[in-house]
Amino acid sequence: MPTINWFPGHMKKTQREIKENLKLVDAIIEIRDARIPRSSANPDIDKLCEGKPRVILLNKSDLSEAKVTKMWMNYLSSENVRVIEVNCLNGKGLNQIKPTLDLLLKEKHDRLKAKGLVKIQMRVMVVGIPNVGKSTFINKMAKNNIAKTGDRPGVTKSKQWIKTKMDIEMLDTPGVLWPKFEDEKTALNLAFTGAIKDEIMDVEELAYNLVKRLQVFYGNKLKDRYKIDEINEDPLETLNSIARRRGCLIKGGEIDYNRIAVILLDEFRGGKIGNISLELPNEEVMGE
Hints:
elongated; 10 strands; Conserved Hypothetical Protein Ylqf, Chain: A, domain 2; 6-stranded mixed beta sheet; Rossmann fold
């Protein structure tokens, strides 16, 4: 798999905007994909946010393996960082955000109250890589369709302030990815979950690599979903079995790899194969 270079100008602009607007906010809300908490984090975010209090939302937690998500919550938490598992589509977990921010900002709020301020409006910056659910989160919090959403990475183009009924005002920014994917496993994780556009990937190779990864820890889920008898040592043979069961064949009985690749990726991303986590806190990648 080739090294991916993808750093559009608007992403570079976003990094500059984050640094410029930090002084306007009390805290950061960072959204990650619960299935890949390491790969879906921008590696520059710690440096960019300069020690600001941060709440990490592990989104799409309905698609990840619950016990692994709990491990990540413990691993990522610190004095200045709190972690909440959420589902931005149905709003699960979002009611924990305000009390979590209150806890992180308690000292600052106590100082303001001592000066006689009764109503405190918190201002937060919302950050996250493309397609991790940032716009869905903002729309859910604002309870209207302010932020433009879409399944194509990088849909949000410019910053905007959004008010909520929780006394939280949110600053939206476009999704951020880093300039270069040196680590193939990180690039694959992002591609599996749709954070990298399918148009720049070979979907057939991607599906093969997904089967290769899943059959190590989630072989039974593959067997159950696709009604195959066994997991073959060769991932290609496992993929072939899945394709035959789904009738993805072309003239002469050959495998239609493009068709089965699209089905497999769609069903993984939609959680139809089951609850799956691709990374552990103490290991680079599950299955490696």
